[in-house]
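Design review, sub-item: ligand-bound model
Attendees: FS, YL, KQ
YL presented the inputs for the 6-hydroxymethylpterin-diphosphate complex:
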Amino acid sequence: MRWTTARFEIDLTRPRVMGIVNLTPDSFSDGGRWLEARQALRHAEQLLREGADILDLGAESSRPGAPGVPEAAEWGRLQPVLEELSHWGVPLSVDTCKPGVMARALALGVDVINDIQALQAPGALAAVAAHPRAGVCLMHMRGAAATMQNLVHYDDVLAEVRAFLAQRVEELTGAGVGRQRICVDPGFGFAKTPRQNLELGQRLNELHGLGLPLLVGWSRKSTLGWLTGRPVDQRLPASLAAGLAALQRGAHILRVHDVAASVEALNTWMALQPTAGQCAASQKT
Ligand code: HH2
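KQ shared the predicted structure:
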């Protein structure tokens, strides 16, 4: 499977790691650390050294209850970092719900728009459709950061997430965004209880019917804290295990904070796949 993005055809026959660069003062696990542009670039460089295949830059936190960021402020955080990163020759994704930010980022040469609102804001779909190749990640959630944790009634969480994503894909293709540009994400932690997140993870393979690349974001999420009793800075083992479980059910891209550890876990998991026998043996010599 391949994912067409603005400058890159991303080969997904091998799972990929998307490294998170948060340019926010209030992200749930690393808010404030990378706010200053130079620090953000250093962090991006580090993630690439550690083996990230794609960088995902976000300048507005989506944690439950996070206050919104005005468009000018969000773009003000992103612009200097994107202007530099656009020369680095690596796939860049921007995590935003705002059509104005999408349009500016795409004009700067960004490859993917990652929208936790699945391009539902007025003008968002048009901003992405205006670019002939830009990739897009459509994530499932309900409501907004302030309200989502009250919107957790589902009769069948997997079926409802799948139906939502299928409907959004239909809308995008109807507007001229080819399926080869679209990736989908069940949205772990967004308008779901811990048990619902676990059920989604257990049944992730049921999303393959959509026939699209599957991205998952388990990294440091509160469901892992619920499961292990660990605070956010001690959730790496659980994040790695959740990521590998997602790979086992056919996920194509892991969105992670801890790139080095994730790449190591991914490579080990790959070497242990039945089809990897010869490759692992040849690496050993
Ligand atoms: N999770 C977060 C943000 N964006 N995008 C996708 N596609 N999937 C996710 O699971 C996802 C996402 C939340 O993580 P983080 O960016 O670290 O936190 P914050 O939103 O507080 O900045």
